Amino acid sequence: MSIYNQQTKLTIGLFGFGVVGESLYKVLACTPTLNAQIKKVCIRHPHKKRNAPADLFTTDVALLLTDPEINVIIELIDDPVAAYYIVTTALSGGKAVVSANKKLIAENMQELIALQQQYNVPFLYEAACCASIPVIRNLEEYYDNELLQGISGIVNGSTNYILTKVTEERTSFITALQQAQTEGFAESDPSLDVNGIDAVNKLSILLTHAYGIIASPSDLLHTGIQNLDENDARFAAEKGYSIKLVATACKLQDGTIAAFVLPQFVGKTSQLATVRNEYNGVVIESSLADQQFFYGKGAGGFPTASAVLSDLSALHYNYRYEYKKLNYQQPASLSGDFYLKVCIRFKSIHQVPHKKFDIILGWSSNSHHCHVTGIIRFSNLAEGYWWKQPGVSVILYPGGIIDNYQAQNDHDDEYYDFVEQLAEVE
Ligand code: HSE
Fold this sequence. Notes:
The protein is of the alpha/beta class. Helices cover about 35% and strands about 25% of the residues.
């Protein structure tokens, strides 16, 4: 079946009964008006205790994918290889698919779009970006024009939770991470959260719906909060900032797009400063409307289930993503030709690759670390890994994307001061 309408009964095959799957099951049980019912749930561990009747469960993947009565597959598992098989088989079999699997979607966007077109089936994934915040559908429908200037968002709930707990409550990093896992915010492999991979997967999806760009997440510059430490927190606090992990996509003057995930200093008056714990927040810049701010829970069972529920409801009116920026407009392209104003912390002054900076605007050093603030060419970060080494952290300044910076041949006084100091200690 490929045409769905208000009368269509949605008979669901659900893959996964973790935090989100179970929440969805509970929500559907008390939403009879949706005309949607879970027929079978496919799970990997049959002996685990489940809060649902035993005859609902199976481990037989094919049972769901080949059942002609099942017209919707909901995929809520965290194994990307199995998810790829489930989603592609379901779409090829003419079943609608709803998924929350950002990694799967980001890494296979081109193929998944082609399958939707080839088999004329809906594939919806609002839950994959910012859980309860309807950001994808807004980018598709409301911002279906040229006015979108930029997106700047806290899109990973776990790292935001950790940063909040560590900086506001002095919780240790490891305890905060364990709490994020217990609450069901973190990925099964939490390094995906901590290292910024989950955030860059979401950025990749947002780029498609915002600008028609299909970019592999591994090609987008990203890092997480893995190298931040108390020195960075102190540095930020002294300057009146907090630190957030932010996914950014921003239109440059020539129409190309700057896109990356980096920790960022956030001023007290920024809306992003108000986003705490597992909440997400997305600031959208539009050339007419100025700034708009979307805020909501970005992780957890019920917030994610709410987005899945909205996708199910959308199936009733045969909603599909049209990929408007890709199909009806001139897709934008990514740029590597811009500059960033950053603060980079090194273990010592000797470690600083000062020639990588176009300008050093300020620096401070003691026996434990050295903070350097400067302007650096984006490609100098994109091409190297020196800034991802343990003991080095990179934090973007507010408004730190510099489009038209005129690189100078002559360095300024701070630069020579730095080089002099370096010579003295060497
Ligand atoms: N691990 C993800 C997060 C879950 O913390 O945001 C929601 O995508």
